[in-house]
Amino acid sequence: MNRPFKRTIVALALAALALPLAAAAQSAPAWPSRPVRLVVPLPPGSGSDLLARAFAQRLTMQWGQSVVVENRPGASTIVANEAVARAAPDGHTLVFAIDGGFTVNPHLYAKLPYDPIKDFAPITLITIFGTLLVANPSLPANSVPELIALAKAQPGKVSYGSIGSGSQMHLLSAMLGHKAGIEILHVPYKGIPQMMTAVLTGEVQLSWVGVFSARPLVQAGRLKALGFGGAKRAAMMPEVPTLAELGYPEVEASVWYGLLAPRATPRLIIERIHADVLKLLRDPEFRDKEMLSKGYEPSGLGPEEFAALIVRETAARGVMVKISGARAE
Predict the structure, then answer these.
(1) Which listed residue, of 9, 59, 242, 296, carries a Cα 20 to 30 Å from 278's Cα?
(2) Within this chain, do residues 114 and 170 fall inside the same structural domain, yes or no?
């Protein structure tokens, strides 16, 4: 084989190898081509809002396009979720999702304006964390076993606060009552500030509170921590046992935040967003400053794993809703 012919064969082989790359480049969408909307289901200043803004700031730097946080609170996150489900599936509208809107709402509402499974493309799980069962210091119980004994001795006299029917506080307390065979009084409030005031003043004896918010109050002696409703002990308060350790594995419900897009969003965009968020979650400065220091355990589950988590937790929350008798308000 002469040299010119060899050069021709090599050139043709290289050209053939380049064809799939060229095709992939042509099929890859030019993204982002304009500002990205990050829709948050809660008002400004909420925990999810502050974390979403931290992500938006860093992703703006990575993507070279503004990532704009858009707060759309209302109707138990339905307003925000519906807006994203109906948005153009081009990667320029995402929802900073909260678990209840996807895992609890289907069991509370006979008809939602969106399908949590069919209308969204999961991108990544950002964080998942449990909540503390806390008590007012005046409650004559310093542990879950003591609480159960007290509630059995005084049925209906121990009360807990929640932010409404179907809220995590309601579901966890109802499940504990069901499994322990006790009756505790449910007192719903309009929001977290009102509920926190109630438990701090002793208007109710119990509630479930995020570790980051509860720890300084426990350290100051204004609340007592009785148990933790997460799958494992909280890194910020490892001395508090989980309900599973205390014999109640069913009393477990973790809050999660994640990113989802409209269902038909191109796979290449989904993978790009997941990869870029994963970089942030693995960045020591961002991880420590924006997440661990505030009680958030970084996750980074990919699209398939996140989708499977949503399906599993939707089934588990269905059981809790049924036991609690929760209804949409």
Answers:
(1) 242
(2) no
Domain count, the chain: 2
The whole-model pTM stands at 0.84
The contacts of residue 131 (CB under 8 Å, 6+ apart) are 168, 169, 172, 208, 209, 210, 211, 228, 229, 230, 253, 255
d(CA 275, CA 140): 50
Q: Return the HEC string of 179-233.
A: HHCCCCEEEECCCHHHHHHHHHHCCCCEEEEEHHHHHHHHHCCCCEEEEECCCCC
List the CATH number of the domain containing 275: 3.40.190.150
Q: Cα angle at 163 between 219 and 201, to 5 degrees?
A: 45
Looking at the fold, whether 49 and 115 belong to one and the same domain comes out as yes
Domain end, chosen from 212, 228, 244, is at 228
Taking only the tens place, the pLDDT of each residue in 263-302 is 999 999 999 999 999 999 999 999 999 999 988 989 999 9
Measure CA of the first residue to CA of the last residue in the chain; give whole Å: 82
pLDDT tens string 230-246: 888 998 999 999 999 99
